[in-house]
Amino acid sequence: MKLSYKFLCLLLGFTCFSLLLSLALARWSFEQGFNEFIINQERERLAMLSSLVVEEYKANGNSWENVDLANARFFSSPPERRLRPPHHRAPPPPSASYSAPSFINRSEGGPPTALLDENQVLVSGNLLATDSGREVRVPVTLNTQQIGWLVSFPPATPSSETAKAFSRQQSHAIIIIGLVSFGVAIILALGITPRIIRPFKAIHHAVKDLTARRYESKLPNDRSDEFGELMQHINTLAETLKTQEKSKNQWLADISHELRTPLTILAGEIELVKAGIRAFDNKQLISFDQEVSRLSLLVDDLYQLSLSDIGGLRYQFSPLNLSDIVDEQCDKLRARFQQKLLSLHVCVTQNAVINADASRIKQLLSNLLINACEYTDAPGEVHISVSTSQTTVTLCVEDSAPGVIKGNESMLFEPLFREDASRARRSSGGGLGLSICKQIAQAHKGEISAMPSMLGGVKINVAFPAITEQKDQ
């Protein structure tokens, strides 16, 4: 089932449930209000009857004797007429609203009614409660003094045809309102669902294009809600994948070029030897060895980078003093710098402790120093230093001319990056040393950056998180 159908069914189901619940509550509220109305009507009826009962009580000398609610003559006329009947006119006929059966017998249209004295003793009427379980009690008072009670038991359901018709009318109205509301809800759901599903469809097509390596399609960025954020992230993902695709193609082209160059040289020299143009002597063997060594270094660097990318490199972290490793690596490479007519200056701070893998840090230092040695013109100089702060330990390697074009410093860490105009390719190296340094620095939660050096060349900073020597190993 499509998402639009699921959403439509869910919306209609929720609407139907809410509507039924609202109608049920409305019906319950109506019944409660209607029952309260019936009870209030009954209280008014008992209040009218109370005034008549008080007059009868007074006429009997403030006594309940001979007061009977079933006496039809008791309800024959209003109290004033009974106390002072006219001399020239016959009394009016009994009023239907004051008929005794309407007060006493349910069968005659009124609820059962009883008269109690002030001591809750039955005087007249019926005290048998009905199945409604409801009781209406009104006090009978004379001059603010309570002299009795009038009690009735109204039915739980309307007894008159008018009340029943009114109840049926309200029920029909509630049903009609419910049906109309449900119809309106369906129309609104059919109109709203496509608008809500539209972003899902756009995102679906965009992701489908990404899986097919079509990175040119862009989602509209005109929304400010979560859909807008998701669309923006997908656009960013498309740009990233496009850049990665381009970088991968460039990477393959660069690798092919780097491998082709020494292989072409080897193939050409071998052909010359086979043709007898060049003698196969010790000099030729040295040339072969140089090209093979160059290929070996390039393949080894590529292997190191591939292991780092797939997480194949294993690190064994432990607290170590970076200054000690710097001194060790500088001592190993000092002769190489002297052969290149380069002066190596070392300035380190003791207790520069970091959490690192010793072999990888040595590899990083070796790559940085060899890179500076290979890409610095003679005579020149290379400075290496270690400084500490409260939170970081910074390794700095800077050299003299030549430098790099301004703005290209960050590109130095890209694999196989060349800037032939200033730092031309030397006799060794495959252009991957600084890329490996970047991978090692990131694995140690450090940051590596390049900038112009005050010496005229390039300055490379590597910042590591600092720890204390007392930290558990």
From TrEMBL:
Its EC number is 2.7.13.3. PROSITE patterns: HAMP (PS50885), HIS_KIN (PS50109). One of its GO terms (cellular component) is plasma membrane. GO terms for molecular function: phosphorelay sensor kinase activity. It is an enzyme of class 2 (transferase). It catalyses: ATP + protein L-histidine = ADP + protein N-phospho-L-histidine. It comes from the Bacteria. The chain crosses the membrane at residues 173-192. Pfam families: HAMP, HATPase_c, HisKA. Keywords: Kinase, Membrane, Phosphoprotein, Transferase, Transmembrane, Transmembrane helix, Two-component regulatory system. Residues 78-103 are annotated as: Disordered. Its main location: membrane. This is histidine kinase. It comes from Alteromonas profundi.
